[in-house]
Write a structure and sequence with these properties.
Elements lengths: L2 E2 L10 H12 L9 H20 L7 E4 L2 H14 L2 E6 L5 H9 L17 H9 L5 E7 L11 H10 L3 E5 L11 H4 L3 E5 L10 E5 L14 H4 L7 H16 L3 H19 L4 E3 L9 E5 L5 H10 L2 E2 L15 H5 L4 H4 L2 E5 L6 H18 L3 H4 L1
Parallel strand pairs: 1-10, 3-4, 4-5, 5-6
Antiparallel strand pairs: 2-7, 6-7, 8-9, 9-11
Helix pairs in contact: 1-9, 2-9, 3-4, 5-6, 10-14
The chain binds pyridoxal-5'-phosphate.
């Protein structure tokens, strides 16, 4: 049986989410219908909206349900453009769900540099904002990095951006449900969320848009989501999203348990091999993310080797083409070719156990030793 250590790609569905989805699926009714079943569906939808809003410190009316994190990021960029943003500044490690719509917006895109610790360079941002002309900027920051798990100084960045009168977007897809995220405290205009990263179903997410940030629909049709996103809401998925987030954040011991598993894995690997680097460990990180690199051993080969050994891990962001790319995040951190080409992400979550981490560490160290004679060819 495969041991699943790829929670940052998609976490297994939590039992609480499965129960909520099942309950909602067995009821009928369109939340926009006025009859009893419609009103019951509406009540379920609005309860989920209130739950998610309160867990993210946002107002319920500011939560717009979408088909996932990608759509939420797209919606934020379109809204910022409509609000007068004339240039987009994403952090160098931004996800494709931000960089692709930014590139397609037609606006100039400038990269916000990242330090070798994996944290964005706040001093650069401060200087950049001080030098900004009259043009309105959209600054975009991923709250916790998808590959290293490094948690970013979102509130500090938000304060700088707000004080300078610009727009701030937070891609909170990886942090939500894994560590605290305070939308109000972030001072963000927008934040993107996704259900499947924290144990909810795939294909559901939300954009939180602050009351001073208008959003006009990109998917046009009916008046759902207060005219900000047309289409009948995915009530079962949304109910599962709220249940997953609630389960994740109400278990106050979960983060420490997962961090202990991650620490055991990293200790085992670093004790056994000096030629494996652990990235982001000097900064605050999500509890369940470990980013490794093993120079001379290509990421793709590592993923395949570990798959054959019975472990599901990845080389970073899951690419829809199924290809393994060099690590854009390690590139942003200035790690160098040998590390960016040999990165591996191991990510744990609610269903992970210490035994799984130990089994992985032993198999990984073993595979590394066997791969070494061929390493020069592998890259
Ligand atoms: C940081 C980040 N943003 C956005 C996304 C896209 O989210 P979704 O899969 O819900 O479209 C992902 C998914 O990998 C992600 O890690």
């Amino acid at each position: 049986m495969t041991i699943y250590l790829d929670h940052n790609a998609s976490a297994p569905l939590r039992p609480e989410a499965l129960a909520a989805i099942g309950e909602a699926l067995s009821a009928c009714g369109n939340p926009s219908s006025v009859h009893g079943p419609g009103r019951a569906a509406r009540a379920r939808l609005e309860a989920a909206r209130r739950t998610i809003a309160s867990l993210m410190t946002a107002r319920a009316e500011d939560v717009i349900f979408t088909s996932g994190g990608t759509e939420a990021n797209n919606l934020a960029i379109a809204a910022a453009r409509a609000a007068g943003a004339r240039r987009i500044i994403p952090a160098a490690f931004a996800h494709d769900a931000v960089t692709a719509p930014a590139a397609a917006s037609g606006l100039p895109v400038e990269t916000w540099p990242v330090l070798s610790t994996g944290v964005v360079d706040l001093a650069w941002l401060e200087a950049r904002l001080a030098a900004a002309s009259e043009e309105r900027l959209l600054v975009a920051l991923m709250a916790a990095n998808n590959e290293t798990g490094v948690i970013q100084p979102v509130a500090e960045a938000g304060r700088l951006v707000r004080e300078a009168g610009h727009l701030f977007h937070v891609d909170a897809v990886q942090i939500a449900g894994k560590a605290a995220f305070d939308f109000a405290g972030s001072l963000a205009h927008f934040a993107a969320l996704s259900a499947h990263k924290c144990g909810g179903p795939m294909g559901v997410g939300a954009l939180i848009a602050a009351c001073d940030a208008g959003v006009s629909a990109q998917i046009r049709g009916g008046g759902q989501e207060s005219y900000r996103r047309a289409g009948t809401e995915n009530v079962p998925g949304i109910a599962g999203f709220a249940a997953a987030l609630e389960a994740a954040l109400s278990d106050t011991g979960e983060g420490a348990r997962i961090a202990a598993i991650r620490d055991r894995l990293e200790a085992h690997i670093s004790d056994a091999r000096a030629d494996i680097t652990i990235w982001g460990a000097g900064a605050p990180r999500l509890p369940g993310t470990s980013c490794l690199s093993a120079p001379g051993w290509a990421s793709e080969i590592q993923v395949i080797a570990m798959d054959l050994a019975g472990f599901a891990v990845s080389a970073g962001a899951a690419c829809s083409s199924g290809k393994v790319r060099r690590s854009k995040v390690l590139d942003a951190m200035g790690a160098g070719d040998e590390h960016a080409q040999s990165a591996l992400r191991v990510s744990f979550g609610w269903s992970s156990t210490m035994e799984e981490a130990e089994a992985f560490a032993a198999a990984y160290v073993n595979a590394r030793s066997r791969a070494l004679p061929r390493a020069a060819v592998a890259v």
